[in-house]
Structure formats: structure tokens, C-alpha cells
Amino acid sequence: MDLDQLVSRDDSVFFRTYKRLGIAIERGEGCYLYTTSGEKILDMFGGLAVNVLGYGHKRMNDAIKAQVDKYIHISNFFYQPKQIELAEKIKKLSGFSKVFFSNSGTESIEAAIKLVRKFFLGTDKTTLVSFTGSFHGRTMGALSLTARKKYREQFQPLLPDVLHLEFNSAAELETKINKRTAAVFIECLQGEGGINPATPEFIAKLNELKNKFGFIIAADEIQSGVGRTGTFNAFTQFGLDADIFIMAKGIGGGLPLGAIAGSDRVADVFTYGEHGSTFGGNPVAAASGVVVMEELENGLISNNKAGGELLRRELNTIKQKYPQKIKEVRGMGLMAGIELSFPGDGVVTQLMKRNILVNCTNDNVIRLLPPFIISSDEIKLFCNAFEEVISEMQ
Fold it and tell me: Are 152 and 205 in the same domain?
């Protein structure tokens, strides 16, 4: 079936929630996608930070198939070996105490909100805090935390008692956070907001105020976590004193899976029936997630760090050649942002013409979230194509 037919069929059956790219995918292999028309595309976006082991990863596929042959789904009323094994690995890698599985990042945010509400039930600590530039999801609680007007304005009213403060303003933390603050939700390395890192002064002030007022810090690592930045939790590199660690995307290697991990402080808040998920921690997704964790344990995290250093080194070399076009190169590990001095859609289009897939966020930031298995040759292939495109942009 040709692309025009697919477009027509798609438009006739779906709500218009996704602005599709003008391509249809036949299969994937490694860091490449293959279209129905036979083109080979280098994927520098990795399914939006999801396909961390790339496409067609044999160990992951074998684990999925083996679990499918046993059972695809059973209720969470049963003990499930793969689910337990995955939680044990998350505990080991993260250093946190207890785990809850969901199906996605936004569901994990909702679970964290409920955990905070239960923790402070019956007190005057009711205010939730997030920051400008943040993106925490599209369900109503998560959307209430998301401080980006274009996602929020059509869906009012949202949750009350949510405060959006200026990201990286230690002064605003000092004046706006108080004894009524229940929790602060923070992406130490903002994704949708343009790959923006928190400053040391900002994190230090946040930790100081937590000690003073006793609120909970929830680290949103949906995009930056699970090894992408060169450590399992990006927030540890910032020195953030987090009580809740929120993850999703890459945790299942491509299957729907999310999770929150809690420190000892919040480990015993939930009790039976207060929260749950029919599909959360699905055994097939858990089997896939176990392989992801094993690959991280076997050196993939250090590979991300080395690959990220190469990527930023190459990009900064290009920036030096075109300082009037590239304002800044930011990121950690295999999570990079290239801030341009002009809107980035044209760069995305021109790279697509060269069979390289990237994303533009925050209007002028080219966002890179490649699979963890990306090679140095593939990083250089992207950088060469990117330099070619930048050199031609007017």
C-alpha cells in the first residue's frame, strides 16, 4: 500500500492528535529504520528516547518471545518473577527502596502525585511546585505540573494549588516555597524545554529549602533517566536530594512501561488498594526491561557517556565554524540539544532529506536522543550531515 493510501486511512479513523511525518516504516535494525519505499534512515531520536537498545535487539526480542510463550498478561494479584527481577535491578541501579510499575511516564507522574498527597494527608502541605519549561505529561494531574502554555490552555480547569516557578531562579525558590509546599517536581535536565540543565546554585537552594520545610522532591527522569546521561539517574550528577525517582520511556526498551522508585522516607506510604494499574509491570514489558537493565549493568551506561562526549565534541567543532547559526550545544550523555539562532524546522526537514531523523523542540533546539547502541561512526555520520545542512542554511 502506498503512502497516500495510508495517510487517507489514518485520517479517517484517528483523532488528530499526532502530526505524522510523511513516511511509513517497514522495519528497524540497529539504529536504522527502513521505510516501506525502501529508504534507510538513521534514527537520532530513538522513538522519543524509548528505543534505547535500537531495533531488532536479539536478546531483548528473545526475552519477549520467551515470555509470550508462557503468558502475555496476568493480574497483579499474582507474583510475577520477571516483574520482581526488574524491580530488584532498578533498586540496585538507582539506590532507592521500593518500586511501583505503571505503563507510561504520565502515569508515573500521577502515581507520584498520589504518593505526595497520601504522605501529607491531614496537613496544610498541599502546594505542588514545578518550573517553567517543564513537561511532565498530558493527563490532568501531569498536565497541571507541565508549565507550557500550548499544552495547557485548551484543558482548563486543571488541578488547584499548583505553582509554576522560574527554572534556575534560586531567588524565586527562596520567596515562593514555604511551609505549605508539599512537593517539588523537577527535571534536572529539561527535555521538551530545550535540553536545559539546572544550575548548581538552584539545586543547592532547593536542597536547603527541603531541609527547612520538609517537602518531597520528585525527580522527573522520564526522558533523562535509565542511563541516558551516563549515570542511571541524571539527578545524582546534580546533587539533588530526591525522594521519588520517576522513569519511563527507555525502561522497557520499546514496550509500554513506566515506574516510580521511592526512598526509605516514602517507602511505606501506600497500602493495599490505594493505587494500582491493570497493565503496569506487564510481564512481557518486564521481560524486555530486564534485558535493558542487564545491558546497562554490562557497560552500556559508560558507552553512553563516551558516545555523548564524542557527540558534543563534534558538535562544538561545528559551532565554532558557524557561531552565528549555532548559539549553544548542551546535554549529558546521549541526550543533546543544539540551540540555533533561528527556528529549527528547516534543519529537521533537510536532515530528513538526507535520511537522518532528528527532532526540534522549543522552536529552535535540535534534540538528539539516539539509541544507546549508537556507534562512533554513526555519530560522525550524523555530525557530517548536520554540518552540511548548517552550512547551507541562510
Answer: yes
Q: E-assigned strands of 167-215?
A: 181-186, 189-190, 196-197
The terminus-to-terminus CA distance of the chain in angstroms comes to 38
> Which H or E element spans position 117?
helix 105-119
How confident is the model at residue 4, as a pLDDT? 86
Residue 157, preceding peptide bond in cis (omega within 30° of 0): yes
E strand intervals along the chain: 25-29, 32-35, 40-43, 98-102, 127-131, 162-165, 181-186, 189-190, 196-197, 216-220, 244-247, 258-262, 326-332, 335-340, 356-357, 359-361, 365-368
Domain range for residue 73? 58-295
Q: Determine, yes or no, domain membership for 196.
A: yes
C-alpha dihedral over 376, 247, 278, 144, to 10 degrees?
Answer: -130
The rounded distance, in Å, linking the Cα atoms of 43 and 47 is 8
**pLDDT averaged per 10 residues in sequence order, the chain, 394 residues:** 86 92 93 95 96 98 98 97 98 97 98 98 98 97 95 95 98 98 98 97 98 98 97 97 98 98 98 96 98 96 95 98 98 98 97 97 97 98 98 91
Question: Which three cell numbers mark 48?
Answer: 522519543
